[in-house]
Predict the 3D structure of the following.
Amino acid sequence: MTYQNYSLKQLQQIDAAHYLHPFTDHKELRDIGSRMITRAEGPFIYDSEGTELLDGMAGLWCVNVGYGRTELAEAAYEQMKELPYYNSFFKCSTPTPVLLSKKLAELAPKNINQVFYGSSGSESNDTALRLVRHYWAIEGKPEKNRIISRKMAYHGSTVAGTSLGGMDGMHQQLGGAVPNIVHVMMPYAYELALPGESDHDFGLRAAKSVEDAILEAGAENVAAFIGEPIMGAGGVKIPPASYWPEVQRICRKYDVLLMLDEVITGYGRTGEWFAAQTFGIEADTITTAKALTSGYQPLSALLVGDRIAATLVDKGGEFYHGYTYSGHPVACAVALKNLEIIEREGLVERVKTDTGPYFAQMLKRISGHGLVGEVRSVGLMGAIEIVKDKATKERFSPVGSAAVAIRDHAIANGMMMRATGDSMILSPPLIWTRATIDMAGDRILKALDLAERDLRNA
Ligand code: PXG
């Protein structure tokens, strides 16, 4: 029996009875019922009632080649027929992850040539944490194990992911984080720059907080710094241009490894294959997931730099870590086909030279609106910051209420987008054209107008 035999109400009742959703207030969900998304095509998603929505979030930052790609279904089907699964433990391998690893080594920055697979960004961040600590241990410096991260960072929802992340609410529910992880300030000038402080100077000050944390612990105790090149779930926080070069310099100075989390920024989102290339960062590990398969299969790849890989190989000894589905052949087959599509259609270049700049222009058009404090974007990743008063940057209260109101109007007007804190987030499929961007801009402006009417009259 397929879902079409159920009414929306019936599906919602079964949903409420049996399905605990991620990041959800379960009482609230039971009061209002969930929206059932039942199919999707190109840039659009459709709910059970046939409502068409332009998907401004590419699913959840992942469907970079858009929906309805039969080639990806065929790649999975062919692989499942030939070899649905075999493990890559005990000196076994299968050809598909081997070939995907070669492809990823070609696409990644020059110093990266090895890959370790998982099935989610969270898993690969667990791998990254384990790996950098293992690296220093076999280098004879087991005490060099502290990790520096940032407030508002999102690195996943497993215990290690939550510990690495800097989300207060998640930490409060964790009841004990992985030890020896500290969090420094995020590089978000609009909120944190001092009066009169330039973006450049603010970026240097935010980077200095990394150096302060290293000095406080003693460099001999610090394994690595981890950061998203652009913070995603934290609200598309784009650092000033001065930030990453300074963080890189500091990491080199104190021999601290640099771990990038590109779960959102990887595979074309910023107009390069990796944001490491956009910002000129040389990383020791890069965590990737999501758009590696455009979300058509769960797969993550930790890209491992030569420095760590060389030590693993030279020193030998087993690294006691891995997952049943590390290098899953079906997920890897879909990834290979997905990367082929991105290359064949020139999507990365298109984001860089055409749709990215056009998207920035669209946001600029929106920036004149009375509720908008600032807009920001890199490639096809952007945010609209919502304020009550443009001049003073005063926010509506409670935090996030205005953005949720705008999001609800956006959805009612055919535009799926996210609200996080007081930021409206956009991270669309890379197949968006100028016409799709215009359509999004019109719908967002309409939602802003309707929300402003509600908010100012409240
Ligand atoms: N790192 C980053 C930078 C992420 O954005 C993860 C790790 C974890 O990946 P998995 O595959 O384990 O979920 C993510 C995931 C949001 C939202 O609210 C963002 C993510 C996941 C769920 C919600 O924007 N990003």
Summary: The longest helix spans residues 434-457. Residues 60, 120-122, 125, 154-156, 161, 228, 232-233, 261, 263-264, 289 surround PXG (CB under 6 Å). The radius of gyration is 22 Å.
